[in-house]
Design goal:
Number of strands of chain B: 2
Strand order of the largest sheet of chain A: 2-3-5-4
Strand content of chain A: 25-35%
Largest interface: A-B, 30 and 35 residues
Shape of chain B: globular
Helix content of chain A: 25-40%
Number of helices of chain B: 16
Number of domains of chain A: 2
CATH topology of the largest domain in chain B: Cytochrome Bc1 Complex, Chain C
Number of helices of chain A: 3
Structural class of chain B: mainly alpha
Low-confidence stretches of chain B: none
Largest sheet of chain B: 2 strands, antiparallel
CATH superfamily of the largest domain in chain B: Cytochrome Bc1 Complex, Chain C
Oligomer: heterodimer
CATH topology of the largest domain in chain A: Rieske Iron-sulfur Protein
Shape of chain A: elongated
Order of helices and strands of chain B: HHEHHHHHHHHEHHHHHH
Mean pLDDT of chain A: 83
Mean pLDDT of chain B: 94
Number of domains of chain B: 2
CATH superfamily of the largest domain in chain A: Rieske [2Fe-2S] iron-sulphur domain
CATH class of the largest domain in chain B: Mainly Alpha
Radius of gyration of chain A: 25 Å
Helix content of chain B: 55-70%
Chain lengths: 168, 404
Amino acid sequence: MAENSRRDFMGKVFGGWAALGGLGVLYAAKKTWDPLPSVKAAGFTTVDLSAAEPNVLNVEKWRGKPIFILKKTPDMEKSDRDVVVGKDRFLVAIGLCTHLGCIPAYRPDKKDFLCACHGGMFDTSGDNIKPPPPSPLVIPPFKVEGTKLVLGEEGPEYKKMKEAGLIA
Amino acid sequence: MAQFEKANSLHEWLDQRLAIDTLERVLAKEYWIPKNINFLWAMGMVLAFTFGILLVSGIFLLMYYQPNVNLAFDSVNYTIMREVEFGWLWRHVHAVAASVVFLIIYIHMFTGIYYGSYKKGREMIWISGMLLFVTFSAEAFSGYMLPWGQMSYWAGMVITNLFSIGSLELNGLVEWIRGDYVPGQAFLDRFFMLHVLLLPLAILGLIGLHFGALRIPHVNNQDGEEIDFEAEAAKYKAGNKKEAKVIAFKPDFLSKDMFVLSVFLIFFFYLVFWHYSFAMDPINFDPADPMKTPPHIYPEWYFLWSYEILRPFPKDPGLVAFGIAQVIFFLIPFLDRSPNVAPASRRGKFNIWFWVMLVDVIVLTVMGKLPPEGIFSTIGLVATVVFFALWISLPFITKNEKAV
């Protein structure tokens, strides 16, 4: 009996020690799958807005994602989500449907975005107007510098929107 | 050391060291199969063989495939398809087998449901089979990423986005799965690893479990009859093969299996040589472009039914419905409250349940392929509601089923 309980104890010690090693392996495996530093530091994209035409969608690339930049025409509804540069108002948003990440297509004649995957729609302020998307197009971190827009940096206008809960 | 006599043949030499005769007897010559079965009982062997075809064709594709976002597309569509001699053959075999294997899996599953082959000790056969279905699905999805065409990329985007679990917005989890903000090099590399190593290993293990799960409860039969396998096997071994209700796996059942397999392979190679294009989506012959979504994204035909369940709802309910649809088939041994092991045709309401379910899954599959507009949306929604209504009603309609 005494022999057995000693063996049991040794077994538990071995088991505990092995479990600790197993946890270490799991941690390492998790970290191995994390995005690499080079991916994270994918940098910033600067876009010049001075040449933008109203009602013409520009698509820029930032961290591998498409960024919609649309200069609004006066008849389009104003929104607190607009990025104001000088006298012009812009929609700036990550061009991925908030449902499952397809790229909605802009329809200049109807002035809306239609997602081909599941039929979701957004207006020119990026607000979702037809399901399944549950929320508006996401506004990426931006900073206005004159007529230029730096994507990836949080400027005062972005921070204000973020505090008001308008970015997504 | 044990005593070894001089062996007179290679067979004897191996038998002394590995007991191959005992092994063959236990696994095949005295593994008993009921006589009262039909060609649907051969689907397991058809599946095992098709998995072998996928393995062999995959090995040849692996020799030229490049898991790199800049090279992958050309390594498949130029190197393998045009340069490598018979490269086209391996690719078409692999693509057609990947598609057809799901057709056979669905036949195999619905056969099991029809004959009630998931209860009274056969629960683990069903559960291990469902685990195989899920692993095959993951294997098919990861393989679909590898040619790095437009459908690969956007299917990868959409499916990995599911892991943000709707309003929970677990974007960190999605980025962790991808190793990037969007599908990229890290994503392609890890799905390559999953496709060629980890998932095939899991499948091999699960096939072992699935076969093992059959040993004790044995294969079901056309009437769901409870057979005393030992008594029937004794009759067979005594030479009374006519009266015995069982036959040996080898050579009796195998010869039937081989016949069905031959018919299947004629159909299979007909598809490979004359109709392979159904397994090759034309949109995937455009290289992946992160800046352009194809106008209409749909999965391969075998995922359409569950994709259609995702579609008609707003995001969160859609995901919940989709999640339930993925796992609900696991639960059939426990939701079917009737003790009857019998073909559906003798089980009254369950017979209606079975055929409505089969037709409903086919309707969902067809609607998943059509654009989500107008009447198709409505039919899809109705079929989805019917799908869930069937599962909810299953315990109630089986609870008071008359014993057969």
